[in-house]
Specification:
Layout: H1 2-25, H2 39-49, E1 56-60, H3 72-83, E2 87-91, H4 101-124, H5 130-156, H6 160-193
Antiparallel strand pairs: 1-2
Length: about 190
């Protein structure tokens, strides 16, 4: 158990550092993002129509979910989707502190949690080798990416550049984390058997 915890924490921290590097020093961190042409006008319109005290996801056009397939409401919805615009907006009416301490701590904790899962998988497979750790990490990174980002691209039209950058970041990052986890597990095995 100790070796899983040590290796999982190490792998999670490697992923955290990799994520920081990707977002601060490579174009992958901004892939698919763009600013609004007239942010002030857009924000003013959002403030006048949306007043969610908590973050909410707004899809438009909204189909109402209750419209019968052959109803005028569904016909109008199909027309709005066909002619556009369509969108997916994560919105919160209240601002937040520009300091990122809380978000960074949550991200680090999430990466360590995922690193512990990867370490547990590697131990369960009996994998205490650097390269098998890297391959397993890359595979699990691709698995996680495909279960979340492919649906976001398919259903919500997330930009292809964003989805592709997320794939590279996830696969490379978890391969590096798996490499470190495999190295720590191999070292712990040697210590136990010496």
């Amino acid at each position: 158990m100790k070796r899983v915890v040590i290796s999982g924490i190490a792998g999670g921290l490697v992923m955290f550092v990799w994520g920081a590097f990707v977002h601060m020093a490579t174009p992958l961190g901004q892939a698919g993002f763009s600013g609004m042409a007239d942010e002030a006008a857009t924000v003013a319109a959002l403030r006048s129509t949306l007043d969610d005290p908590d973050p909410a996801i707004h899809l438009f056009p909204w189909d109402g979910h209750d419209a019968a397939p052959d109803s005028p409401e569904m016909t109008a919805f199909v027309e709005r989707v066909t002619t556009g615009p369509t969108g997916f907006l994560v919105y919160q009416s209240r601002g937040r502190s520009p300091t990122m301490t809380r978000q960074l701590l949550i991200q680090a904790a999430g990466n360590v949690f995922a690193g512990l899962i990867l370490a547990g998988v590697l131990c369960g497979l009996g994998t205490t080798c650097l390269w098998r750790g890297a391959a397993t990490g890359a595979a699990l990174g691709a698995f996680a990416w495909s279960t979340i980002l492919i649906p976001y691209w398919n259903w919500y039209r997330f930009p292809g550049a964003f989805v592709t950058a997320a794939l590279v970041s996830s696969v490379v990052g978890w391969a590096l984390a798996g490499l470190v986890i495999g190295a720590v597990l191999a070292r712990e095995d040697k210590l136990e058997h010496s």
